[in-house]
Amino acid sequence: MHTGASLLFIVFDAASLEGDTQALADRLDERLNAAGRVYELFVVRQTDELGAATGRALPAAGAAGGAVVAAGTDGTLHAVAQAVWNASLPLGLLPLGGASQLARAHGIPGEPDAALDVLLHAHVESVPVGMLGDRIFLLGAGVDMYPGMSHGLAHAARRALTLELHQQGRMRLLRARALFVGSDVALLRGLGVQQVPTPAPGQLLVTAQQPMPLWRTAWQALRGARGGSEEAESIDSLAFDRLVLRSGRGQKAVDVVVDGVHRQLATPLQFECAPKPIHLLLPTV
User: Fold this and answer.
1) How far apart are CA 175 and CA 161, in angstroms?
2) Which end of the chain is least crowded, N or C, by CB within 10 Å?
3) Is the distance from CB of 10 to CB of 39 less than 8 angstroms?
4) Which of 268, 265, 266 is nearest to 256 (CA)?
5) What's the number of CA atoms in the CB half-sphere (13 Å) around residue 252?
6) Cα–Cα distances in angstroms (integers) from residue 178 to residues 87, 115, 184, 190, in the given order
7) Cα angle 201, 138, 264; round to 5
8) CA dihedral sign of residues 197, 198, 201, 204
9) What pTM was estimated for this model as a whole?
10) Which CA distances in Å does 6 have to 9, 120, 149, 191?
11) At a CB cut-off of 8 Å and minimum separation 6, what does 129 contact?
12) Above 60 in pLDDT, residue 217?
């Protein structure tokens, strides 16, 4: 644990927000000046400017020994986090434009003034992060967590995913219809998973929803049409060192939500713990 960075280089993604973004920027100026903080705003006014603004903030923060702050929606926080992690610099999260599950998971409130209060009194803490391919995630990655309701039974039957779980030199195969990968035990329990193992250093957790046999899928569809209640599917939560996900026959891509950002990615996908942590500005208790 280290002292929080006093110099803040803020990537303010106005393009990702609705409403009066100038009022938000003015409020940031007012609060930071009142706190006597040295800072610089890198304002993003067009959606394609985020990378360039982050690219200007990184060397400025590195040269000054400061922290980069991502200010915007979850998509902004996720994108800036990747660049800051690559540069091994401290990262502050300032969620704007609504609730942020990513920020909340790290104890940062979603209301801008409250989040700024945290930022002004934060400390720097090294936090393990996961990797999906060559990209990091701070919160987690869900695969096929929100399947469409219009898929037929034949499509539902082939949605099953194959998971190769590697742990301490051993490999285990698992079938799943949907899954969530992360390292936050409290978050998984909050999602309703009862039995959650504690991952060892360098491990992540996968919570997998088991696919039902076709006859049960058909029975539940029939019960749903008649107003019957849905039975709970089997859920497993396991720790792993590396996970390789392969999609079913005829399915070339899967829907993935990474840190709240939706993507469609081609399989196979590989998950593992990142080789280094990210340095986050977190609330001081």
Assistant:
1) 6
2) C
3) yes
4) 265
5) 0
6) 33, 33, 18, 17
7) 120
8) positive
9) 0.83
10) 10, 8, 49, 36
11) 85, 136, 137, 138, 273, 274, 277, 278
12) no
What angle do helix axes 21-34 and 112-120 make, rounded to 10 degrees?
Answer: 30
Q: Is the pLDDT of residue 66 over 90?
A: yes
**Measured distance CA(237)–CA(248) in Å, rounded:** 21
The whole-chain average pLDDT of the chain stands at 84
Token representation of residue 5 = 């960075």
Residues 6+ apart with CB under 8 A from 199: 183, 185, 205, 239
Lookup: tokens for 2: 């280290």
Q: How many CB atoms are closer than 10 A to CB 175?
A: 12
pLDDT digits (tens, 9 = 90+) for 107-138: 999 899 999 999 999 999 999 999 999 999 99
Instruction: Give the torsion through C-alpha atoms of 180, 183, 187, 188, to 10 deg.
Output: 50
In order of 3, 18, 36, 120, 279, the CA distances from 113 in angstroms are 21, 17, 16, 10, 22
Beta strands 7-13; 38-44: pairing state: parallel
Q: Residue 11: which H helix or E strand, with range?
A: strand 7-13
As given in the structure block, the two tokens for residue 17 are 């927000």
Least confident interval from 14-23, 57-66, 77-86? 14-23
